[in-house]
Amino acid sequence: MTVSDSSPTAAHSSGTLSSLTLARPDDWHLHLRDGEMLGAVLPHTVRQFGRAIVMPNLKPPVTTVEAARAYRERILAALPIGATFEPLMTLYLTDNTPPDEIRRARESGFVHGVKLYPAGATTNSDFGVTDLSKCAKTLEAMQETGMPLLVHGEVTDSSIDLFDREKVFIDRVMMPLRRDFPALKVVFEHITTKDAAQYVRDDDAPAGLLGATITAHHLLYNRNAIFQGGIRPHYYCLPVLKRETHRVALVEAATSGSPRFFLGTDSAPHPKGLKEHACGCAGCYTALHALELYAEAFDNAGALDKLEGFASFFGPDFYRLPRSSERVTLVRENWTLPAEIFAGEATVVPLRAGETIGWRLA
Ligand SMILES: NC(=O)N[C@@H](CC(=O)O)C(=O)O
Ligand SMILES: [Zn+2]
Ligand SMILES: [Zn+2]
């Protein structure tokens, strides 16, 4: 990583760097959707990232290698001319995913993970797993073939407070799962709590078995953002933003230099009309300005020197893929985010729409 300084006397303060060059990052948790939405959001991701783990929660979900192959081809067909971008595909785990599908996935070379959505936990999770014990044979096949399980870590028990569902998931699901499948590779996706950060940090399984992604919005905002002066649907996602102590713990984890924590935007576009709605969809759109948001979070923590590991190294290391040999540069410069972006008939409102951001991807 090379850094340049605007003032020679301030060489020790990362708060004064005027630019930052790092290996091209990847996004280890992304929603690209399909059709016109895919066409609208893909260029944003491609501008920022070299690869992305593409979530399978389409309607209907991507449950087979054949469906993943077709989806991958639609993504490649939607790429801007001349763009180099590698979609890393995932399968959506159901109660009935056959163990053979895992073996086919491993052989395909383009499926890099299998996603666990507890049924009912989040957007398009209705076909998700109702009871993990139904998936034992499939999880065994994943463990055998080294196929990572990517986990939306929230219980769906309606008697559990919404803000506690991640913490309770650790005890009720994550720990028993990892006890039963001790060699399974697991990514705890989009962690939002101090509890999850500590669980991942303190895990004593062999290195490379447990990782966690952290979004930019969970590093920058706490739950007050959803209610500031009125209800703000564009700050509503799942798992929902938590209180400040949790945000601080996530920043600590992301900037710790631990290879267990890596970048996953969870950029999740929804049409504006379905966000600004009596029952608005969960998901924040950040693909447009993800790196800039992460730079802001690391800069605020005085830890810009830790951004490259988190954004560009630890993800490929976990997935056993090569680190990128390309480089990107972030410049300290204010710019105003658009109020919305156009996706065919629909528009999408990015996080912090119409406001300024202090970093720009060159
Ligand atoms: N994060 C979200 O709030 N929404 C995601 C689903 C998910 O990642 O849980 C989506 O697909 O919209
Ligand atoms: Zn999720
Ligand atoms: Zn997601």
Automatic annotation (TrEMBL):
Instruction: Tell me what reaction this enzyme catalyses.
Output: (S)-dihydroorotate + H2O = N-carbamoyl-L-aspartate + H(+)
Q: List N6-carboxylysine occurrences by residue.
A: K115
Q: Which residues bind Zn(2+) 1?
A: H29, H31, K115, D266
> Cofactor binding mode, per the note?
Binds 2 Zn(2+) ions per subunit.
Show the GO MF annotations. dihydroorotase activity; zinc ion binding
**Metabolic or biological pathway, per its Swiss-Prot or TrEMBL entry:** Pyrimidine metabolism; UMP biosynthesis via de novo pathway; (S)-dihydroorotate from bicarbonate: step 3/3
Q: What is its EC number?
A: 3.5.2.3
Residues annotated as binding substrate: H31, L32, R33, N57, H152, L238, H270, A282
Q: Which HAMAP family match?
A: PyrC_classII
Name of this chain's protein: Dihydroorotase
Look up and give the organism this protein is from: Trinickia dinghuensis
Q: What phylogenetic lineage does the species belong to?
A: Bacteria, Pseudomonadati, Pseudomonadota, Betaproteobacteria, Burkholderiales
